[in-house]
Write a structure and sequence with these properties.
With 596 residues, this protein is an alpha+beta fold. It contains 17 helices and 18 strands. Strand 4, helix 4 and strand 5 form a beta-alpha-beta unit. The longest helix is centred in the middle third of the chain and has 35 residues.
Amino acid sequence: MKADQLRQKYIQFFVEKNHTQISGQSLIPENDPTVLFTTAGMHPLVPYILGEPHPGGSRLVDYQKCIRTGDIEAVGDPSHLTFFEMLGNWSLGDYFKDEAVRMSYEFLTSPRWLGLDPEKLSVTVFAGEEGISRDDYTADIWRSLGIPDERIYFLPREDNWWGPAGATGPCGPDSEMFIDTGREACGPDCIPGCSCGKYFEIWNDVFMQYRKTEQGTYEQMDRKCVDTGMGIERTIAILQGKQSVYETELFSGIIAAIEKLSGKHYGEDELTDVSIRIIADHLRTSVFILGDERGVVPSNLGQGYILRRLIRRAVRHSRKLDIHDFFLGDLSDYVIDQYCGPYPELEPNRGFVKAELKAEEEKFLKTLLKGEHEFEKMLPNLMKGKTRTIPGRLAFKLYDTYGFPLELTEELAAEHQFSVDREGFAKAFEKHQEASRAGAEKTFKGGLADNSEMTTALHTATHLLHQALRIVLGSHVGQKGSNITPDRLRFDFTHHDKMSGGEIQQVEDIVNEQIQRNLPVEMEMMSVEEAKEAGAIAFFESKYGEQVKVYSVGDFSKEVCGGPHVRNTSEMGTFKILKEQSSSAGVRRIKAVLER
């Protein structure tokens, strides 16, 4: 079964089970929430799991593009990916464990769907802990479906518990499904979840039945939800009998092109394979970031920094394969051709993707030359030292300040009979990661830092600001992201020129005028076509016929959004722009507050 077939079958199965197909959302989360990218299929649905009514109803299904950046350094082995697709179905206060498990089993084992051998299926359930009972109910469902006790494993929190989106909120046990690959067990303690490769996780059903309180206790929720996830890449690998996701059709075109450029062959030796996998994965992820509806460009901050890091790591490994020409732009065609069906936003962005990839390759060439120059400047002092080891902090400075890869520093060091303190580099890198996580990847909570009264007011203010900018600067203005805390809002928008003092004052005056009009904020559910006809501002990622939420602020602003919002602008206070500055090429940034 190919990826396109799996995607289609999954949607068809759940539509037949009375689920509404909804559109997957952007990789850049709405309102630029406190994660850099959409990291799971459930992230765009957090507000609805928390209780917001969804326009599509209480049974939903979709496929979602996701990126996880925590394992970038692990990419290169046969299984790790930065970009992946997640299939998901949800019950928002509708069915619960019984129906969810039975549907999972049917889709996995029925000859009409995946047709996997039930004898090769093992499952895990939550073992329980003090204050939370063991999930015997789910285990009994699996038994009723024919899964014997010896293939039902009770595992602790670290294996079978899905935590809340923030410090508090919905959470609960999960049940994971594994396929026995037929490989030899690594020992008598080998069970599902073991990393030896005998057991392959194929699906996960999460049961949101508890709410974690501020006191750290867990209370049963009246409105229970189900959130599931199945990774497309990993699932088709097992369905095709492949040993690695990189052996599937999703990567075959890119890998063949890399082989042709390098004269090397995948499967030839492990070092070559590692470099080919890194280039293939990082190129695919970069294409999806650049080609996204809210695509960003390489930079030194946030999503742009991750993108730059991926591109440069791919280029670095191309040099290991003796590829010295600019090549990523040409290879991007393989990714776009593979995915433009399910993700039509890629095709119109093809030229932009190729141009940005080539531009970043050219910049990185300059970086390599500059890094080599900086190393040469450091060398005389290093030669005077008592040891032949380059301190980790210096290696990290080359990496962080000049974008110079550690491997290149080690190569240059070896040419002068030096080694590099990798442990010191790792400590400096970890310190940098901790700072980045604290500043940019806090816990996700529905697109906002919290749902407090002030955050809600500031979120509503972004609607007024967006419309005011379009009035003053022109209809080309579009939201490129925002970040909202209880203290301030940050709003990024498309515009090439710095705003004048007069333009800033004019925007501020327009927003305050609407606040003083005491305008009601109202929500309507309507189809995408109706929203377009009504003049609502949106990216319109939703598919034809899908229902969306449209928030109107009186007669001034109309925008597709997931909330939350004030009921009337009289609740907001006085709007004040603190700063207007450049965010990235062609994107400006406004920071503003509401004074009460």
